[in-house]
Amino acid sequence: MAYNQVSLQRYNDKYQEALAAFQLPGEQAQFTAMPAEVLDAGPGRHPIVIVNDEEPVGFFILHTSERVKDYSENPGAMLLTALSINHVEQGKGYAKKGMLLLQALVKEQFPEYDEVVLAVNHKNLPAQNLYEKVGFQDTGRRREGKLGEQLVYALYVS
């Protein structure tokens, strides 16, 4: 897989139609929100599109709002939510490459932040494995989510 065509882009309207067409199987959809459900960028919400050759293949949101305080006491932390890869694009390494590009994105576009945190369901082993492979660490903190215990992971941006 040639990764040199994969990039992270701030959301803009040209991606709306492709993101609205994203599909996930039920066992994955239970753990995340579909892009079309959470696209509205409000204060402290920064939608990010994982793009391959100008085509959206994945999506997530970085939060800089008060919501972050539920996951980290670090004033320089951002919260990552709603990561998804369109079902037809899964298995091609896009989630891993997108997450490997995350530190550079934060350094370039959010230089005042030095940590990205997220919560992952304790049953979502594929996601836990992905996050650990790209440098996220289990903080030992736990939260109760709608589907049970969530593990809080952190990626330190240096």
TrEMBL record:
Instruction: Extract the InterPro entries matched here.
Output: Acyl_CoA_acyltransferase (IPR016181), GNAT_dom (IPR000182)
**Which SUPFAM superfamilies does the record cross-reference, listed alphabetically?**
Acyl-CoA N-acyltransferases (Nat)
Q: Which domain of life is it from?
A: Bacteria
Give every N-acetyltransferase domain span: 1-158
**Entries under Pfam families matching the protein:** Acetyltransf_1 (PF00583)
Protein name, please?
GNAT family N-acetyltransferase
- The scientific name of the source species is Paenibacillus chibensis
Taxonomic placement? Bacteria, Bacillati, Bacillota, Bacilli, Bacillales
